[in-house]
## 1
Amino acid sequence: MYDESNDVRGARMAIRGMLLGGAVLAAFPALAAPLDPVAPQLTGTKEAPATPSVVGYPAIGNGEGTVQGKYNVSRWAEDWRTMRDPAKRDDPLDRLKYLPLTQDGEVYLTLSGEFRYRVQATTNPDLRDREAQRQERYRIFAGADLHLGEHVRFYGELAKARLDGVNLGTPGANLRNALTLQQGFGEVKGRIGDAEVGVRGGRQEFSDGPNLLMAVRDDPTLHFVLDGVRGYARGKRLRADVFDLRFVNYGREGMSDDRTDGSRRFSGVTFGYAVPNDFLGTSKLFFDPFVWRLRNRNAAWGGQTAREERMFYGLHLYGDVDRTTVDWTVNYQDGEFNDRDISAWQVFLAQTWRVAKDASAPRVGVHVDYASGGGGASGTGTLRTPSGLYGNNIYYSYQLFLTPTNLLAISPNITVQPVKNLRVTGEFTMAWRPNEDEAVYRASGAAFANTQNVAGKHIANLIRAQAVWALTPRVSLTGRYEHMMVKDALSNAGYKNSDFLAAWASFRF
């Protein structure tokens, strides 16, 4: 008798072999050459999450943080040793970036902070015919980075989140929180041969992967953080990061009610290879194969809640080729959910092209994103719905109505800089579901009710526009508008169009 399961297992083994083989091929050239000392840490690996299109280049592909102007979203990823020289300081606040505690200056403290005020309005919240929602969000972050010489550091960050407005429902603890220890970790680092190695343990932000799979989620007032350990080794062209982390459940009161979530454990390894600059003419590219595992005792699909163990096998290529910026990911997921097999795919292809050599020239681009679907809403058969982990869903919509599960999205975009320090981006997204028998999913990972029971593949069209004005290196203003036009896959289930309008001001030091 024909046993289909043997073919499925064989296909999975072949897929694993291809992806892991890619990792070996990427690592081999670097392993063949001696590792050189790395430069001091630079900020940035990914675009600012408020930007709809890929507009920036990761200064160094070390998987630590996201650049916003001269600052990093993950503040511990900044290196302020240049402030040791008084001539480098522009104002009194620069003095806070380097406070020597010993005469030789090897022990020093860096202080950082952020205040953000944001107001936003959403019509037809949850895409239902309801009263509009208005939110006023306040963020206060305060961080301290203590360096005990070259090899030891401790970082702590307190945060407060306040939320006011109309028609708020039940706000999450990442929007309303009296006080939390958002980050608190220690790090030990040094050199083995020509490689920099280190271990970081405690509560920390972790975003060493594609933006649509992991991000600090700068949209909510509090960032997404995890508890655990991260270790790394970095040479001239090759790096490896290993980690074992658990999710964190925020409480709404003081620091005592924020708990490690013992039911969700995330571990794995991300490799990195800095492609030689003469590859494809003139290029600055990074190639990051990864193998991750997510274990969730309370995963929910199709009305079922059960244990899930999910593996991620992926390849991530990003950076610049002449005037073109690319960010490409291929990711296969397998494992088991409630004794059912998992077999799911995600492909993210984003690229922009600068129309002239000048850095402020307009950029045109498109990102195409595919995520398989099947078995999630039905509760039977192989589960072909991929997980979006804790990725950056505002990439699709600040209304959080789309996520890379059972999704095909095509988004042409353009970014212009009409005057100095003002960047304006416009984008048009067309979204479909590849599997008409599977539900449409929102950013939380939950299905839109009844969408698996209606006809239609076209989910929605979305118009988006955003302007970011950097008044000073510390102060920025952002305005954003979105109009979501639901199509058959949503309208046939009773969902309505929605508008989103927001403005916010950020101050950082």
## 2
Amino acid sequence: MPVVFRERGLRFFFYSFEGSPREPVHIHVKGNDADAKFWVGEEIVLAYNDGLNSRDLALVSLIIRARRKEIRDAWYAHFG
């Protein structure tokens, strides 16, 4: 489970075994008893949320948007 980065007490990561066929680029976010998943394409889209409030979701979306290239580069380095 590669961690791409940590920010504001949250861990941004991938699961190494995402299933077959592999899903498109996305990032999981965990912290403070919350868990979320975002698709990282042209748009940043929430896939699911368990525990993040609307303010935290907005903040996480901004972080992902700002670090989109880093996330995508890490994804392709890990998954090929």
## 3
Amino acid sequence: MYSDTHFHFRHIVRDRGLDGTALLHELVARNTAFALDIGTEADDLIERHNFVTEAIDLLDAGEQSKALKMVRFAAGIWPSPEEIRERQERVKLLADKIAHFEKSGNRVIAIGECGLDHHWNPSGADNRSKEDFDSSMLLGERELFEMQLVLAKNLELPVVIHSREAFEDTLDILKNIGYNRGIIHCFSYGIDEARAFLDLGWHIAFGGAVTYAKKTKMDAMKELLRFVPDDRLLLETDAPYLAPVPLRGQTNTPVFIEHVYNFIAETRGINPVALSELVDKNISFLFEL
């Protein structure tokens, strides 16, 4: 119950110091059906997998099989300036890592997260400054995204897209490449933008940020949450980031996603359990599980 289509296990454990085994134990105890560990770097897949398997190894035998079935892996390159500058080599490395991972008997079920991010804040976690958005960097960011869409198409995998303050460019790239299968993650636009992505065939994922929209924007947020069709709706945490109300400010984990389900279920006028079943059905369809 209460699947999570986007979280970063390594960041939760390594960077925030939480107990990964305790987290997986709690998810198994809650009968969580699906939890997708997301990539951000060309060469992070094996390390991320190791963090998860090391935590699973400390579970009871009965829990281990459930955890192995529950946690799945995506692999992709977030548009950091470093990755953009070396984009051709990094996408080749990403493809090689995926091939090696699957030869060892594992499976990548999505490419991502990848996309465009035009937000800058030098004091933020990503340390992006205005100078990072010159013409060459913007072109490189676009090419990095396009190459990963082509990789996903070649591998016949869905894509997890990060799009922040970059709607028009994101949409333009999707139309140019012509591969429209996957998720617009942590959706931060309005109904008109949602309609454009939905018309192309994309799923829309919402996380904890929907629970703390400003009062002046809450009505519009709820209208958006009701607008997305049942068969295109997904939920996520983006843990360890964006913990939902009433836990805002804490290190987020997939356990906290229950609050997102409760909020969206109330907004859409359905039971949280029914919403969970709906989301799991969408997950099974999108990822061919």
